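Changelog entry

Holo records now carry the ligand SMILES as an explicit input line rather than a separate metadata file. Below, a converted record for 1-deoxy-D-xylulose-5-phosphate, shown in the new format.
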Amino acid sequence: MPETPHLDQIHIPADLKNRDLDFLKSVADELRAETIDAVSVTGGHLGAGLGVVELTVALHHVFDTPDDVLVWDVGHQCYPHKILTGRRDRIRTLRQGGGLSGFTKRSESEYDPFGAAHASTSISAALGFAVARDLKGEDERKVIAVIGDGAMSAGMAYEAMNNAGAMKKNLIVILNDNDMSIAPPVGAMSHYFARQVSSKSYQDIRKLGKGVARALGVEDAARKAEEYLRGMAMGGTLFEEMGFRYIGPIDGHKLDQLVPVLRNVRDYDEGPVLIHCVTQKGKGYEPAEAAADKYHGVAKFDVVTGEQQKKKPGAPSYTSVFAKSLIAEAETDESIVAITAAMPGGTGVDKFAERFPDRAFDVGIAEQHAVTFAAGLAAEGMKPYAAIYSTFLQRGYDQVVHDVAIQKLPVRFAIDRAGLVGADGQTHAGSFDVGYLGMLPGMVVMAASDEAELARMVKTLTLIDDGPSAFRYPRGEGTGVEIPDNPEPLEIGKGRIVREGTAVAILSLGGRLQESLKAADDLGARGLSTTVADARFAKPLDEDMILRLAREHEVLITIEEGARGGFGAFVLHMLAEKGALDAGLKIRTMTLPDVFQDQDSPYAMYEAAGLNAKHVVATALEALGRDAEAAKALA
Ligand SMILES: Cc1ncc(C[n+]2csc(CCOP(=O)(O)OP(=O)(O)O)c2C)c(N)n1
Ligand SMILES: CC(=O)[C@@H](O)[C@H](O)COP(=O)(O)O
Ligand SMILES: [Mg+2]
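Structure line, unchanged by the conversion:
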């Protein structure tokens, strides 16, 4: 544990008041060390937090949180903020079961006025706070949003600025420009920011900072910087045109620049202000600064060497199987293109881009655009694979409906991180895609039960040219099955029987198949011969197979890695329509519970969700009236 004599004096942000710059600098240094040490034992988002250490200290020194409202965009950079806002004693529980969330969360602290984890929401939320404040007549309270350069690629940020600029509300937006997203940032705005940073005024203030601080000492240097910065607001920037006063760029690691600038804008009450703050992702920790991803998200690591805990080599990840399979298809089909919204590594589109640089597109954090862009490509005869995490596709839903499905355009959705994802918790769970896609007319929706199935699904989608289609697959490693070199396409709307039995039928969609097979073993040992079927399709359903399961078994259980209103609901609907429930079939639908589950290991989350093998066993026994045995199975 690092020595932290200054940080130890800070229990809440008010303890940072009336402190001089030297003290604040020491707090910042110790806060950085504490953040590094904490994340070394928990893993998590490190680089972003290290880049905002000084900014966090300066904000809490200058403003009166929680009365002043501080909204962090994404929230993955908020670990230093958590340490300063009364959560230091639990900081080594970050992202663990029962521990602190890895993001800002309203239920966790009054210093987190707005929860986040999906990007680019902060300016909209902050404007809402500002308008409410004014309606309540509490004008003295300040509202600040901190948003990254990557998050600035999303439409929402501009929708919010457009609105804020016109409303002329007092609102402070801090653009935290570290010239990084998860991967190097993309897009014209990113180039625009880079031009601002290379401008003469920024280079001048950097020189001024260095020279003057040496000559005058920090307090005098701060006064000098303040004088300089007062005269520095530039006209004519994009932000000025949108109605913001633009200040910067300033060096976000220099408290002697940050503090006076923040003090000035705190007292400015003539409308919205944007401070362009230049920072470095991973700042102050050499292994992070040197890493290509600037330690965006890390496993547990050794603080001295920076070496991250390696996972034991296991089966290939679903993501890598997707990438490999798509590359194989694209070798012989030039119309295949791949799209990612700022997640090239996470989706495997980086691998596709290495092989086909002209056919891979990283559009930035812009899921809405990604979907409609794919629709345009499809309309022109290309075969776009939009590889988007289940949770982030939620943002592009109207585009899926309006631009893709209604026009029957053959966009292929490769939906990664389907189901529970573990440490990222509530906000990142891929719970809803089967429901929200399966309800759309004409959509084909599949779920892979293992990596060989995934390879077959990639192949299958190359053949669907008359409408949209999707397949979903979980985060992490596959099951270790052999992956065929030339995968056979699947017959649309056909499932498969994996094991034949007579009393109980388990109909699994996607990644719960292994648990279903374990449950079948257990039920078999209890004298209940059990059929296990892999549905493969949530839409269209394999009606023949499901009707047969309903006819020939006393109990039918559906199971899926998704919320209510998904696969089980579709099956129930179909069986009801066909009158297959009229004869007294004992049917149970096993889904994620109707709550937003907190983070934990994926296994523990499925355990809490009641979707592991023993839960299937108990469900079957309970359906058969063997309640005592069911209770024992769960014990
Ligand atoms: C809507 C949405 N899409 C994708 C992501 C995944 N994501 C999390 S952080 C991040 C990069 C954010 O970059 P930036 O805003 O510059 O913050 P930095 O990490 O550089 O501090 C991305 C793409 C997300 N959280 N939300
Ligand atoms: C903050 C954020 O949204 C991402 O960094 C996310 O945590 C990545 O998740 P994976 O680790 O599953 O790619
Ligand atoms: Mg960034």
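Spot-checked after migration. The domain at 319-474 is CATH 3.40.50.970 (Rossmann fold). Residues 45, 74, 76, 182, 297, 346, 417, 421, 424, 475 surround 1-deoxy-D-xylulose-5-phosphate (ligand 2) (CB under 6 Å).
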